[in-house]
Automatic annotation (TrEMBL):
Keywords: Signal. This is C-type lectin domain-containing protein. Residues 1-16 form the signal peptide. Residues 29-144 form the C-type lectin domain. It comes from Mesorhabditis belari. The lineage of its organism: Eukaryota, Metazoa, Ecdysozoa, Nematoda, Chromadorea.
């Protein structure tokens, strides 16, 4: 109840000259807007939807904003939604718009630094706290749109079979010729050469095929991702020595 009272107080003092896009709500008296998507979607789909509004997955820079967004989410969500905190390849966390995480509201023990697969964050609708999660499960999501991006009204529409919009990200990995556990001198390249370079996102206890993450849909862009043998990807990279080099090496053996 106290969060709803706080929400009502801030809305009553909002600037009447500022208008949020259709389907969004002004964040208290700030020139910022909030969009809450109650249907469970994949993280990357949510991130693109936020960009369609001119915003990003929710950025909260103080506890008042967290409380307001928590109150709005509690009115329409039963599942904790994705927000805009992302773990980068170097292990640090940043907001989805790329700015430093200068405010956080992590639950005790969060974020879990020991799990390399936990690179997204949710707002716990029971406690207002943030929790780090795997990005692979569909969830509701929340966007925030800054005032200079939100002055023009926009319209939204719903559509069926939205999973197809994930294909740009889900199938954009690129197979490489490495099978191993992600560590130097472990496993093998498909041409039999020594594994003297790796760029893995995480490591494995078993030897599996790897793919390059060559799309900015993901925070760990350009690193390698391990996958099961049943994994799918639309592309692969081939490599062969130049003809001149092959001839030179053959001549050296004579």
């Amino acid at each position: 109840m106290r969060y709803l009272v706080l929400l009502s107080f801030f809305i009553s003092y909002s600037n009447a000259d500022f208008t949020c896009p259709q389907g969004t709500t002004q964040l208290g008296s700030e020139h910022r807007c909030v969009y809450i998507h109650p249907t469970a979607e994949y993280y990357n789909w949510g991130a693109r939807k936020c960009r369609d509004f001119g915003g990003y997955l929710a950025k909260m820079t103080n506890y008042f904003e967290t409380s307001l967004i928590f109150a709005l989410a509690g009115q329409s969500l039963d599942v904790s939604p994705y927000i805009g905190a992302q773990k980068m390849a170097n292990g640090t966390w940043r907001f989805a718009d790329g700015t430093p995480l200068n405010y956080s509201n992590w639950a005790p023990g969060e974020p879990n630094a020991s799990d390399d697969n936990v690179i997204c964050a949710i707002l716990d609708i029971q406690s207002t706290k943030w929790k780090a999660v795997d990005c692979g499960a569909p969830r509701p999501f929340i966007c925030t749109i800054e005032g200079d991006k939100a002055m023009t009204k926009q319209s939204t529409s719903n559509f069926n079979n939205g999973a197809a919009s994930n294909l740009r990200c889900d199938y954009s990995y690129t197979w490489i010729g490495y099978i191993g556990d992600g560590q130097l001198n472990h496993g093998s390249w498909s041409d039999g050469t020594v594994v003297d370079y790796v760029a893995p996102y995480g490591s494995r206890s078993d030897e599996v095929p790897w793919k390059m993450i060559n799309t900015n849909c993901y925070a760990n862009y350009v690193q390698w991702s391990s996958t099961a043998l049943t994994g799918v990807s639309a592309r692969y990279i081939c490599k062969q020595p130049s003809t001149m080099r092959a001839r030179r090496e053959a001549a050296e053996k004579l």
